[in-house]
Amino acid sequence: MTPDFTCLLIPLAMAGLAILNAGLTRSRSTSHILLASLCAVSVAMLAFVIVGFSVAGNGRLFALSLDLTGIAGPLMLLMQLFSVGIAALIPVASGAERWRIAAVCASTALLAGLVYPLFAHWAASAGWLGALGFTDAGGAGSIQVLGGISALCVVWIVGPRQGKFTSEGIPTAMPGHNAAFVLFGCLLTLVGWFGLTTAQNPILAAINTVLAAAAGAIAALVGTRVRFGKPDASLTANGWVAGLVAISASAPYVKPVSAMLIGFVAGGAIVFAIEIVEFRMGVDDPAGAISVHAVAGSWGLLAVSIFADGRGPFLAQAMGIATLIGFALPMSYGLNWLLNRFVPYRVSASGERQGMDLFELGAGAYPEFVTQREDFMRR
Amino acid sequence: MKLAGLLLMPAGWGIALSAIRLLHTLPAQTAFCLAGLAIEIVGFVLVAREHLPKRRVKNDA
């Protein structure tokens, strides 16, 4: 797949995801999560150029072997830089409110320098997965599922937020502080997603991307309305993104009606997946990133074999998912576990109570407003 | 058990990889690949169980 200049839209997807994630977390850590997002994207891109480019089999360290005279080579590097940036953003959302920025940067360097390039190399047409017929047009596997898997590993290591689970292990609600950020972030993400999906058959891919997002949002809206009595704004937003994630793999290849179905299933599934991750697995994921990216991305990979005629044989797609779970997950967990020994992931208890903005950055995002009930409630 | 789970996952992947390499018929490859995936899921469940929030046992005495 040769990327084109639409990949320049992808930073809008990064912006959308960052603002969406900020809206889903509490106000005491807003600046921190946005700065962590910026740092993650920056470190990811630098690490990829320095090391990952070579690990991905594209040439030498620091991309020194890149042919700068043509367009194809630099465009491919640009696409990969943006792709690894998006993958790096996903764990930041899951570790929000307790994952230190230094640890974010260190973990991202490993993700971008080692884990992502390995899988991306294998999944490319020249790699063994690609040779098997593995099809992943917009990075559902190499970006979304890989990002979701990394997010899960980070959350397992960093642990839940204080007060998230009661002594009986029951999760408590910690709603996001700004629904406007969440919903605006969705719309911004859509525009950026065109950069991921429209390298081939751009018009069809764009139609499918929009339809999948819309179907995902409606599925989540109806699902939450039926399940909880009222529609939930944050889950609907997650449904929209889940639709985008799921269609990433097959956008240029499927019919529009299939895209709607893919998005609908993804949006409906994440309503339950988020619940399972929180209640059954006991994982504290403030932005629902694990469900939206890993689960919907896996569905997207399988959907290629179901809906895209002549592409992505089931065996190849299953092998891709098996590689992500069987190789990327243990590798990511092991690397993050080891890194935690040298660069502590979790902020101190007092720092978490104070809020990451004040503790790590020295200034809150909303200095004119009281953001913590402890500040004005009598004890 | 966490370590066992972390080892089961690449073991399952190894089974799936071996199936692709050593078997020649599509149904056999698919069956063993799915078997490898199932083993990976068992390993994943083992690791996930080790990360469940610790529940404090109430002392009723």
What does this molecule look like?
- The complex is a heterodimer of chains A (379) and B (61).
- Chain A has 15 helices and no strands.
- Chain A is an all-alpha fold and 379 residues long.
- The longest helix of chain A has 29 residues.
- Chain A starts with 9 loop residues before the first helix and ends with a helix.
- The relative contact order of chain A is 0.16.
- Chain B is elongated and about 55 Å long.
- The two termini of chain B are 32 Å apart.
- Chain B contains two helices and no strands.
- At the A-B interface, helix 12 of A face helix 1 and helix 2 of B.
Structural class of chain B: mainly alpha
Q: Which residues of chain B sit in consecutive blocks of at least 5 with pLDDT less than 50? A: none
Structural class of chain A: mainly alpha
Helix proportion range of chain A: 55-70%
Strand element count of chain B: 0
Percent in helix of chain B: over 70%
Biggest chain pair interface = A-B, 24 and 29 residues
User: Helix count of chain A?
Assistant: 15
Task: Round the mean pLDDT of chain B to the nearest integer and report it.
Answer: 89
